[in-house]
């Protein structure tokens, strides 16, 4: 095996998390694990040192390179392994492998920079199907109370002379009062009506508990719905200040772009001088609020994993890759590229990414979803059983009265029952009371 001299970048006088981290006298991190895996596949030994000037590598006006790229060009290091962006200028100066990680440019904001509330956000705790089911249950319960109040002789004993207290409109009002926990009298007197009412009360208590619980959760997760979803939203508003790292490739992307939206973003940053001097400063300003930090998506993902109050916008532009650099024309380049592709195909790179970008905010990522109709099937079943039992009791109450009437009138029970049902269901809100009939006779 060959002994190669490997260069590791850690940032200006600091280690760059999570690529290279100091742990005692040892170095660890994503790049260390990647280097170890590549070395195993290619069978070489290596020695690690930190870049002297703490820079990735930039070309000056004379064409000379500094930082990691400069040390590889001058032969001071055989390899440079770091989040080195693969660019045309660097590809001309050194050899670059296939990218071991894809990144792009995105936006970092506080979670509480959210959309304005909609007019009908109060409906979000339940799905449309659930609301339809609740409406059907409401109308079905009101209809059941109305019918049972007419059938049950305990509720309406003299349909020829008494006014029925439960008209259909009053049944709707009574059911709505129970739904809002306000109540609306009069209450049913018959056992059948009370069974239906108790079933509806139980249904409404559980329903309201689900509604308010999910409403609270949906309001707390509203912050994930960003007002700034992408760069066009950012360019079209002037409420939130935004900026990027001074002198970075991110700034160069906006500066050199012909896209009018990206040009407006660059001109705004130049006009307001809203640049930050370091990644840490950008994250700090984003945490303070009213500032959107534009940077490379993998770095922003790390900030989101470490700071639970931050979130990254979904849009990612200017896709690019991080590569390992070696001397121009080095035979290592081909073998390193093959090893990187093998690690990618085996899922090793994805594993390393999840290992070093693990979030400490897993509990905060839970987002409430509207309650589905099938989630409340137990409630609807209990209500249906209550309505059915109430209707059955009402029929039994009427049958009992019809039996007694059949004995008194010397008719069959079925005949009396049929007459009672016909009278009760055909009568409107009520037949006029007997005294009204007497008054009519007097007028005649």
Automatic annotation (TrEMBL):
Q: Any idea which positions bind L-glutamate?
A: 83, 85, 90, 249-250, 296
Per the database record, which ranges form the Ionotropic glutamate receptor C-terminal domain? 6-359
List the residues marked with site Crucial to convey clamshell closure to channel opening: 228
For this protein, the record's InterPro entries field holds:
Glu/Gly-bd (IPR019594), Iono_Glu_rcpt_met (IPR001508), Ionotropic_Glu_rcpt (IPR015683), Iontro_rcpt_C (IPR001320)
Pinpoint the Ionotropic glutamate receptor L-glutamate and glycine-binding domain residues: 18-74
SMART domains recorded for this chain? Lig_chan-Glu_bd (SM00918), PBPe (SM00079)
Where is it predominantly found?
A: membrane
Please name the Pfam families in this protein's record.
Lig_chan (PF00060), Lig_chan-Glu_bd (PF10613)
- In terms of superkingdom, the source organism counts as Eukaryota
Q: Where in the cell is it found?
A: Postsynaptic cell membrane
Signal sequence annotation: none
Q: What does this protein do?
A: Receptor for glutamate that functions as a ligand-gated ion channel in the central nervous system and plays an important role in excitatory synaptic transmission. L-glutamate acts as an excitatory neurotransmitter at many synapses in the central nervous system.
| Protein's name in the database | Glutamate receptor
- Organism of provenance: Seriola lalandi dorsalis
């Amino acid at each position: 095996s060959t002994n190669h001299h490997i260069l590791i970048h850690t940032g200006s006088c600091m280690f760059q998390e999570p690529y290279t981290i100091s742990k005692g006298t040892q170095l660890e991190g994503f790049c260390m694990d990647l280097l170890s895996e590549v070395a195993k596949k290619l069978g070489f030994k290596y020695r690690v040192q930190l870049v002297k000037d703490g820079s990735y590598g930039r070309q000056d006006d004379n064409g000379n390179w500094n930082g990691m790229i400069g040390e590889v060009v001058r032969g001071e290091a055989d390899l440079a392994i770091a989040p080195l962006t693969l660019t045309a200028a660097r590809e001309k100066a050194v050899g670059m492998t296939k990218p071991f990680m894809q990144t792009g440019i995105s936006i970092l904001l506080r979670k509480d920079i959210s959309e304005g509330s909609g007019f009908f956000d109060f409906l979000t705790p339940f799905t449309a199907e659930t609301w339809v089911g609740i409406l059907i249950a409401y109308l079905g319960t009101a209809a059941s109370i109305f019918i049972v109040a007419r059938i049950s002789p305990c509720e309406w004993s003299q349909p020829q002379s008494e006014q029925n207290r439960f008209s259909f409109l009053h049944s709707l009002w009574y059911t709505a009062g129970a739904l809002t926990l306000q109540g609306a009298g009069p209450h049913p007197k018959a056992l059948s009506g009370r069974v239906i009412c108790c079933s509806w009360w139980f249904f409404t208590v559980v329903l309201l508990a689900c509604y308010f619980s999910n409403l609270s959760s949906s309001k707390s997760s509203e912050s994930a719905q960003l007002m700034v979803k992408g760069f066009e939203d950012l360019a079209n508003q002037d409420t939130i200040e935004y900026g990027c790292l001074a002198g970075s490739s991110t700034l160069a992307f906006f500066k050199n772009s012909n896209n009018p939206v990206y040009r407006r973003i660059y001109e705004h940053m130049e006009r307001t001088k809203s640049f930050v001097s370091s990644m840490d400063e950008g994250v700090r300003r984003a945490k303070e609020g009213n500032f959107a930090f534009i940077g490379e998506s993998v770095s922003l993902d790390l900030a989101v994993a470490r700071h639970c109050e931050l979130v990254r916008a979904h849009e990612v532009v200017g896709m690019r890759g991080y590569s390992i650099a070696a001397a121009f024309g080095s035979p290592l380049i081909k073998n390193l590229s093959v090893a990187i592709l093998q690690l990618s195909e085996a899922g090793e790179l994805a594993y390393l990414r999840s290992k070093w970008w693990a979030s400490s905010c897993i509990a905060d990522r839970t987002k409430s979803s509207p309650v589905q109709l099938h989630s409340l099937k137990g409630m609807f079943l209990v209500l249906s059983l209550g309505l059915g039992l109430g209707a059955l009791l009402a029929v039994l109450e009427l049958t009992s009265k019809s039996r007694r009437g059949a004995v008194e009138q010397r008719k069959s029970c079925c005949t009396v029952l049929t007459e009672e049902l016909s009278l009760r269901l055909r009568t409107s809100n009520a037949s006029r009371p007997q005294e009204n009939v007497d008054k009519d006779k007097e007028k005649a």
